[in-house]
Design brief:
Number of helices: 17
Subcellular location: Cell junction, Adherens junction; Cell membrane; Cell projection, Microvillus; Cell projection, Rhabdomere
Main location: other
Low-confidence stretches: 1-75, 548-591, 594-618
Strand order of the largest sheet: 12-11-10-9-15-14-13-16
Membrane topology: Peripheral membrane protein
Keywords: Cell junction, Cell membrane, Coiled coil, Membrane
Radius of gyration: 46 Å
CATH class of the largest domain: Mainly Alpha
CATH topology of the largest domain: Helix Hairpins
GO biological process, one term: regulation of cell population proliferation
Length: 703
């Protein structure tokens, strides 16, 4: 296994000897509960781990002096922190003067994350409100919990506009998958029942791999870990019924890798109305309670009981300036003739959080519309190479699987042919045995007929002798003559009868001899047919053995070629990323956001156009090939989408009869109304952005 440590570090799996100096402040212990580090699985790391009590499953010690991590800071005093992730926990000893950036960089380096601009560290402050760790401020100077081990939660702070285009690293995709899945299960994101079943099937594919009917056991899936409790309570369906519907779709995902299943999950989830929205309670000048949603595309305003369908939206391209004054939040649009968009929150802390999320989303909004940086281009190139390599391995595996299935099919055919030949041989042996029995019977009948013929011939000669004696005695007396005449007539009659019987017996004997000849001829033909079948079977067995050896040689060669494939090195890590953070806000503070009108976007493109020209990494052939691949993926995606829509409609109609009407929520009613009118998340956003800014601000004030 490749060591997952940087140069200059030593991986320790045991404590030092007694004669060595052991300073706990010079080492950073990292506890992993589930996933591995930098692409290594937990199973691979478990072989090199120490089993510890207290629920900690695995422990890796990186011998890494703190002065190398936090240069220029005193390491004489430290405090423990715990980073909670959705599938792991990390623990570090952090220097007292460490900043939020130091801790964040340590976490992302540990898990091998490079797309750091989406994530942040969340904690619960002294007033039990959730806050994000400020990067440029010392950790101890922030309102962190006063506990022996300070807990932080590593979460996605910002969401991409399109997961398939923006998320490059697999670890980034996996972290988003876990967070979105947990949000759906916690009902923080509304998901309709039929969509929940589809997403659950992708989650099962990502966790267990391909469906195997031989090893799958009914009842092995936990519905609480796959479907929201709201969905389970709205239908009169048992867990077995839900599992069967998930299993049907799970079987359709055969051949899909874990990363592909997680990406399909995210593609479907990003079309949900509440995906990627951070909600805050606000009021307008009329003191109407509303929801403010901060998204990657802009700010949305929702009614107090409908977080699914926004009433109005303000895209980031129309926002020029944001300012905070205690509980008052003011947004100045780029249209200087339009009035300011003003709302009020419950406290100033919430306004600071809204401002922080707004600035971060606005920065990412601008960044997406600029040319990719060198680092992002390198990551995308490495991701394409890795995807291409995995596709090659997948194709090789598919070919090997096809060859194996072909060999098994040929083996089954040979076994079937063998059984057929054996059946034909048994039938031929039975026919031969019956022919031999018939021939023996005919021989016996012929022998009996010959004996009867000889007996009749003997009786005829005796009768003729008796007739001669009667003629000799007929001269004695007339009476004797008459008697003899009578006997002669009787003898003649008997002789004629015997002669006829002899002729009949002779004819019968001749017929039996003919049948015997035909039987022996049939026996000869049966033996010849049996010999022919035996020769044919031997030649088929030889030919099949030759084919099997060829297939085995091909599979062995392919396996050796696959084993000899060299793995690409992981992309070089760069820790020079910087995320814009929010400094301490004072009353009356304001933040200017650059205009994002059409003209400014064109200016950005013209500014960065020379960089793109100088960083042209693709030639015409690569561009053409990439275009063909994109078009092919688009066609496949549209076809798959149509198929999924048909399946979703079928499932919806199937479970509709089992719905419990009294358990339906307001969001369910809103969703069904959207289905009835044909509204989608994107059509709703287009509608809420229609009109000018002045009209939308006026509409907000009237809510």
């Amino acid at each position: 296994m490749t060591e997952c440590v940087k140069p200059g570090r030593e991986l320790l799996v045991n404590k030092p000897q007694r004669d060595e100096l052991w300073n706990p402040l010079e080492f950073v212990p990292v506890f992993l509960l589930a996933r591995g580090i930098q692409g290594h699985s937990g199973a691979a790391l478990k072989e090199r781990a120490i089993q510890l009590p207290g629920g900690v499953l695995q422990c890796l010690f990186f011998k890494m002096p703190l002065r190398n991590i936090f240069r220029g800071k005193s390491a004489s005093k430290s405090f423990p922190v715990k980073i909670v992730m959705l599938d792991a926990e990390l623990e570090f000893n952090l220097p007292w003067r460490a900043t939020g950036r130091d801790l964040f960089d340590l976490v992302v380096r540990t898990i091998g994350l490079r797309e750091t601009w989406y994530f942040g560290l969340q904690f619960e402050d002294s007033k039990n409100n959730f806050a994000w760790l400020k990067m440029e401020k010392r950790v101890q100077d922030q309102d962190i919990p006063k506990q022996s081990v300070v807990p932080f939660v590593f979460l996605a702070k910002f969401y991409p506009e399109d997961v398939s285009e923006e998320l490059v690293q697999e670890v980034t995709q996996h972290l988003f998958f876990l967070q979105v899945k947990q949000s759906i299960l916690n009902m923080d994101i509304y998901c309709p029942p039929e969509m929940s079943v589809l997403l659950a099937s992708y989650a099962v594919q990502a966790k267990f791999g391909d469906y195997d009917h031989a090893t799958y056991r009914a009842g092995s899936l936990s519905m609480e870990e796959l479907l929201p409790q709201r969905v389970l309570s709205q239908y009169q369906m048992t867990p077995v019924m839900w599992e069967e519907r998930i299993r049907v779709w799970y079987a359709d995902h055969r051949g899909m890798t874990r990363d592909e299943a997680e990406m399909e999950y995210l593609k479907i989830a990003q079309d949900l109305g509440m995906y990627g929205v951070n909600y805050f309670t606000i009021t307008n000048k009329k003191q109407t309670e509303l929801w403010l949603g901060v998204t990657a595309l802009g700010l949305n305003v929702y009614e107090s009981e409908n977080k699914l369908e926004p009433k109005i939206s303000f895209p980031w391209s129309e926002i020029r300036n944001i300012s905070v004054d205690d509980k008052k939040f003011t947004i100045r649009p780029t249209d200087k003739t339009a009035p300011n968009f003003v709302f009020f929150s419950k406290n100033s802390r919430m306004n600071k959080l809204i401002l922080d999320l707004s600035i971060g989303n606005h920065e990412l909004f601008k960044r997406r519309r600029k040319p990719d940086t060198i680092e992002v281009q390198q990551m995308k190139a490495a991701a394409r190479e890795e995807k291409h390599r995995r596709q090659i391995e997948k194709d090789k595996l598919a070919r090997e699987k096809q060859l194996r299935e072909e060999a098994e099919r040929q083996k089954a055919e040979l076994e079937q042919r063998l059984l057929q030949y054996q059946e034909e041989m048994r039938a031929a042996n039975d026919a031969l045995r019956r022919s031999e029995e018939t021939a023996d019977l005919l021989v016996e009948k012929s022998r009996i007929a010959e004996e009867e013929t000889m007996l009749l011939t003997q009786k005829a000669s005796e009768a003729e002798q008796e007739c001669q004696r009667a003629h000799l005695l007929s001269a004695k007396t007339q009476e004797e003559k008459m008697l003899m005449e009578h006997k002669v007539r009787e003898a003649e009659l008997l002789v004629s009868t015997m002669v006829e019987e002899g002729e009949r017996r002779a004819t019968e004997s001749e017929r039996l001899q003919q049948e015997l000849i035909r039987a022996r001829f049939s026996e000869k033909q049966a033996k010849e047919k049996l010999n022919t079948l035996v020769k044919t079977f031997n030649s088929s067995i030889c030919h099949s053995a030759a084919n099997s050896s060829i297939v085995n040689s091909s599979i062995l060669g392919t396996s050796l070629l696959n084993n000899s494939t060299m793995h690409l090195p992981p992309p070089a890590y760069s820790h020079s990323l910087a995320i814009g953070s929010t400094n301490d806000l004072v009353v009356g503070s304001a933040v200017d956001l650059p205009d994002l009108t059409l003209e400014s976007t064109e200016a950005l493109n013209s500014t960065y156009a020379p960089d793109l020209t100088s960083l042209d990494l693709l030639n015409d052939t690569d561009v053409e090939q990439l275009s063909l691949e994109i078009e092919k993926e688009r066609v496949e995606y549209l076809e798959r989408s149509r198929h999924l829509q048909q399946q979703l409609r079928h499932l919806k109609s199937e479970i509709e009869v089992l719905k419990v009407e009294e358990n339906q929520t307001l969001l369910d009613a809103v969703y069904h109304e959207q289905l009835r009118t044909g509204e989608t998340k994107y059509s709703t956003l287009r509608r809420t952005r229609s009109g000018n800014t002045r009209t939308r601000v006026a509409f907000f004030e009237e809510l």
